[in-house]
């Protein structure tokens, strides 16, 4: 009896060992993550944000003063650079999803610039002694920016006033600058929104992830405030090299914090390239377009993947054996098994571009459901970008005095960043707890949060139009329409209210969008989901430029003389576009059904 039972006993013992090992790994994973990782990630976010702000906020001035670039060309280069910086995180998210996972991509992107700095230090000519005192190891492309700020051979001869035409930068000098911008894009692409995904992967509940996303935007914008103020002040009053060096030091501290927390992070493995599977769904559905679906019943004719041992348990396989949903039913053909698609012996795929799993089809449908909501943010981003650019021009033509201090026109944008930080804090600490008390524990949904952001954006742009109308009234009252240099006595502080509203709106719709995409996107696209906001921001930069160009070509609203402009008409046009877009958003939100939010 003992002999006959020995063999099965060994088998069960082996299975128990495997189960114990699996449970141990699961237990170890659960011990990692949580709020204990947040201090490391927060410092990394803050350091990277300071570096980014310090490297980009004063780029136009740097190009004009140090590279003798004409002002319009400098603005165009800056816009292109900012657009590329916004798109780069999408590439980093795709790489993280498909190949390496989130943490390695974030870490390597931050280490990458350190290696560039070492190489540059070894192969470039040594700096003067006094310059060494101002340089610190730094991240992003900051090494190149600092070197160009320090090495006179890497930039043209400084342009002195009243000394004739300036010497333009040579092709080689511009190439060095573009390399720096490229390296900045590489570093931002790997780390910017992947940091948010890495942080979200440390938590099990949606409530914790929502708080994490709120704090991500707090640190992102607070660090930008430091970059836009303190770093710009150092660059303008001390030296460009020291300014970029301080930014680099902040980024280095961020990298050290990220690495110190390595042992505590959860690191979900990459899911493989999700876009190949999505493309297969579209191709397979198209190739089976003529297949009659009317006679099919249940899920027996649909492919669920190769059978596993666990699938022998009927109870365990109920969820995995369900047929595809009825929405976008034409795509269900992609999972329909036809002759020659799979092998009869083990269910492996023979023709991968003619058959997909039901789960892959459902993932594709999820993207189709979310895309209309995502598209509603494009007009928001266009309006936001346009408002920022023209607010600076408004401020230049208004009284910016605060006592004995004159506020720099570009620093008015800091009001938006401060408003974002304060608004997110109020939403997280006041609005959400109050809502839970009034609604028996329910928090505002991502769609409700985004919708509120739409409303604030409309009000903000309308307020900008009203302020501009007031400014033009003072211009007309003084008869200064023909004087482009005349400054209105109207205080620039009237711009504070629309900027505060713009920041509050962004604090609602951008974090709300990230929450929605992260929760609703397929598991294989978690990194890409947070990068979708980057695409919106990039489109905002590019389409804002296109909109202004169309307005200038078709109307007389935007002459070079701000005192003869009708900027208020442009703002009202944006308000109308935002209102129409809000109606479109309400329709999309009404038709949308959450897949994961609240579960």
From TrEMBL:
4Fe-4S keyword on record: no
Main subcellular location: membrane
Region (Disordered): 1-32, 302-327
Biased composition annotated in UniProt, kind: Polar residues: 1-21
Gene Ontology CC: membrane
Localization terms from the record: Membrane
Keywords recorded for this protein, A-Z: Membrane, Transmembrane, Transmembrane helix
SUPFAM superfamilies to which the protein is assigned, alphabetical: MFS general substrate transporter
GO terms of molecular function: transmembrane transporter activity
Signal peptide: none
The keyword Ribosomal protein is assigned to this record: no
Membrane topology: Multi-pass membrane protein
TM ranges: 40-64, 76-99, 105-124, 136-154, 174-193, 213-234, 240-260, 373-397, 409-427, 492-518, 530-550, 570-592
Listed InterPro entries: MFS_trans_sf, POT_fam
Record-linked Pfam families: PTR2
Family of this protein: Belongs to the major facilitator superfamily. Proton-dependent oligopeptide transporter (POT/PTR) (TC 2.A.17) family.
Name by which UniProt lists this protein: Uncharacterized protein
Species annotation: Eleusine coracana subsp. coracana
């Amino acid at each position: 009896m003992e002999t006959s039972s020995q063999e099965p006993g060994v088998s069960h013992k082996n299975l128990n060992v495997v189960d114990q090992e699996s449970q141990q790994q699961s237990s170890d994973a659960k011990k990692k993550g949580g709020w204990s990782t947040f201090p490391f990630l927060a410092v990394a976010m803050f350091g990277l944000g300071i570096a980014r702000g310090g490297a980009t906020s004063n780029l136009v001035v740097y190009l004009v003063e140090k590279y003798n670039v004409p002002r319009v060309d400098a603005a165009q280069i800056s816009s292109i650079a900012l657009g590329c910086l916004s798109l780069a995180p999408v590439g980093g998210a795709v790489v993280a999803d498909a190949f390496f996972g989130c943490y390695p991509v974030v870490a390597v992107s931050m280490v990458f610039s350190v290696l560039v700095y070492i190489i540059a230090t070894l192969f470039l000519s040594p700096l003067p002694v006094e310059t060494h005192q101002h340089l610190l190891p730094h991240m992003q492309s900051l090494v190149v920016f600092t070197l160009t700020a320090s090495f006179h051979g890497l930039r043209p001869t400084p342009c002195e006033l009243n000394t004739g035409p300036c010497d333009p930068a040579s092709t080689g000098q511009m190439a060095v600058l573009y390399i720096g911008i490229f390296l900045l894009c590489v570093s931002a692409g790997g780390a910017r929104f992947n940091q948010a995904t890495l942080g979200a992967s440390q938590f099990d509940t949606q409530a914790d992830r929502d708080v994490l996303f709120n704090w991500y935007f707090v640190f992102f914008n607070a660090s930008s405030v430091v970059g836009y103020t303190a770093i710009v002040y150092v660059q303008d009053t001390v030296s460009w090299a020291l300014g970029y060096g301080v930014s680099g030091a902040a980024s280095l501290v961020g990298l050290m914090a990220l690495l110190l927390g390595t042992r505590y992070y959860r690191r979900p493995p990459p899911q493989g390239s999700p876009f190949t599977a999505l493309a297969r769904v579209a191709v397979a559905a198209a190739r089976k377009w003529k297949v009659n679906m009317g006679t099919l019943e249940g899920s027996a004719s649909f492919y669920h993947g190769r059978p596993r041992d666990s699938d022998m348990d009927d109870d365990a396989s109920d969820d995995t054996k369900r047929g595809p949903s009825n929405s976008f039913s034409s795509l269900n053909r992609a999972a329909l098994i036809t002759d020659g698609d799979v092998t009869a012996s083990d269910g492996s795929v023979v023709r991968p571009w003619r058959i997909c799993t039901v789960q892959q089809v459902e993932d594709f449908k999820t993207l189709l459901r979310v895309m209309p909501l995502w598209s509603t943010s494009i007009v928001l981003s266009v309006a936001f970008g346009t408002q920022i650019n023209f607010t600076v021009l408004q401020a230049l033509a208004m009284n910016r005095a605060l006592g004995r201090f004159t506020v720099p026109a570009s620093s008015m944008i800091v009001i938006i960043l401060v408003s974002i930080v304060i608004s997110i804090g109020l939403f997280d600490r006041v609005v959400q707890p109050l809502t839970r008390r009034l609604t028996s524990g329910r928090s505002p949904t991502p769609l409700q949060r985004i919708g509120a952001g739409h409303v604030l954006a409309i009000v903000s742009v309308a307020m900008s139009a009203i302020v501009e109308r007031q400014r033009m009234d003072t211009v007309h009252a003084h008869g200064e329409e023909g004087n482009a240099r005349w400054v209105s006595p109207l205080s620039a502080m009237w711009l504070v209210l629309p900027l505060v509203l713009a920041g509050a709106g962004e604090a609602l719709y951008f974090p709300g969008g990230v929450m929605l995409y992260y929760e609703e996107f397929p598991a294989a696209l978690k990194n890409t989901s947070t990068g979708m906001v980057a695409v919106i921001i990039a489109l905002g930069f590019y389409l804002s430029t296109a909109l202004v160009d169309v307005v200038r070509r078709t109307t007389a609203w935007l002459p070079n003389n701000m005192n003869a402009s009708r900027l208020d008409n442009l703002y009202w046009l944006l308000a109308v576009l935002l209102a129409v877009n809000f109606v479109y958003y309400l329709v999309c939100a009404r038709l949308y059904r959450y897949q994961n939010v609240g579960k």
